[in-house]
Amino acid sequence: MPYDTSNIFARILRGELPATKVYEDDHVLAFNDVAPKAPVHVLVIPKQPFVSMDDFSRIAGPEEVGRFFKTVGEIARELGLAENGYRLILNIGGHGGQEVPHIHVHILGGRPIGPMVMVR
Ligand code: 5GP
Questions:
Q1: Ligand 1 centroid to 21 CA: how many Å?
Q2: Is the Cβ–Cβ distance between 54 and 2 less than 8 Å?
């Protein structure tokens, strides 16, 4: 699937839509999820245009991928989540339940997050 430059997170990156930013550097932006599923629910995205973990892990180099995941861990620590723990969720494509086609990691914490996968 080609990258859709009109997706919501691309628009947030361009400053066309508002977001409550919690972290930003040259490579990464993190902001609060608009519909939080936990007391802390932050989305972390690379600034480069990747659709999902699939193209990110195929196209981006190990330095870029490594830097991204190191930054996710740093953000979680800065949010005060490391001591009690937290959950990362990375949805990929249709079966993964990905709604926004710009790769994003969910950081969820602030209370026990519950079963690993919702059963319904
Ligand atoms: P996905 O299902 O793609 O893994 O997660 C997409 C997430 O983006 C959802 O948790 C949803 O609440 C969040 N989201 C959708 N639109 C917006 C928006 O305009 N702003 C922010 N901050 N989050 C959004």
A1: 14
A2: no
